[in-house]
Amino acid sequence: MAKLFLVRHGQSLWNLENRFTGWQDIDITEVGIEEARKAGIALKKERIDIAFTSALIRAQHTLNLILEETGNTHIPVVTDKALNERSYGNLEGLNKAETALKYGDEQVHTWRRSYDVVPPGGESLKDTYNRVIPYFEAQIVPPLRLGKNVLVVAHGNSLRALIMYLEHLSPEEILEREIATGVPLTYFFDENFHVSRVENE
């Protein structure tokens, strides 16, 4: 059966500066480039038939580096904002520690780590789930059902939404899940298209 590879983009400049990034188009750092290349090396022996990524440069740059390392620069690549990071709205660009001083640790923790609380002008994880999963079902599931191996390079929260769906996790369970930058996660499916195994590369 087909495999689904999920990779969170390499470290971005605003990851490094501890800022809320969301839909801001911030590229990856030198560390992020190295993480992307390591992801490519980890996936080098895998067949990749098609790739999907977001409309944001940090995910696209990471994907391009992975495809270079794996020798898959010729495969189809589909870009869509449905896979973008969760929007943090008015918080985007703000330092997380300074924001906690302004609004209080508890409020910022709630904005970041609750399932359905919306930060000012932004999206909750539930909102992100409700845009990512219909796209996944309509665009990514069909090639998987045809037996194609699919690579998705996206973001912490858009991937959380996918993992929640694939592993049937509760809102509480998914909020505890950390997704490392540049580390491939591989999903294997059985003949009924249920997840049969998950591996970290």
Automatic annotation (TrEMBL):
* Alphabetical list of InterPro entries matching this protein: His_Pase_superF_clade-1, His_PPase_superfam, PG/BPGM_mutase_AS, Phosphogly_mut1
Q: Which Gene3D superfamilies match?
A: Phosphoglycerate mutase-like
Show the CDD domains listed in the entry: HP_PGM_like
> Would I find Isomerase among this entry's keywords?
yes
Query: Which Pfam families does the protein's record reference?
Result: His_Phos_1 (PF00300)
| Reactions the enzyme catalyzes | (2R)-2-phosphoglycerate = (2R)-3-phosphoglycerate
Q: What is its EC number?
A: 5.4.2.11
The domain of life for this entry's organism is Bacteria
Question: Which residues are named in the active-site annotation?
Answer: 9, 85
Q: PROSITE patterns from the entry?
A: PG_MUTASE (PS00175)
Report keywords, A-Z: Gluconeogenesis, Glycolysis, Isomerase
HAMAP family xref list: PGAM_GpmA
Its job: Catalyzes the interconversion of 2-phosphoglycerate and 3-phosphoglycerate.
Q: Which PANTHER family match?
A: PHOSPHOGLYCERATE MUTASE (PTHR11931)
- State what protein this is by name: 2,3-bisphosphoglycerate-dependent phosphoglycerate mutase
Species in which this protein is naturally found: Chryseobacterium arthrosphaerae
Q: Organism classification, top ranks?
A: Bacteria, Pseudomonadati, Bacteroidota, Flavobacteriia, Flavobacteriales
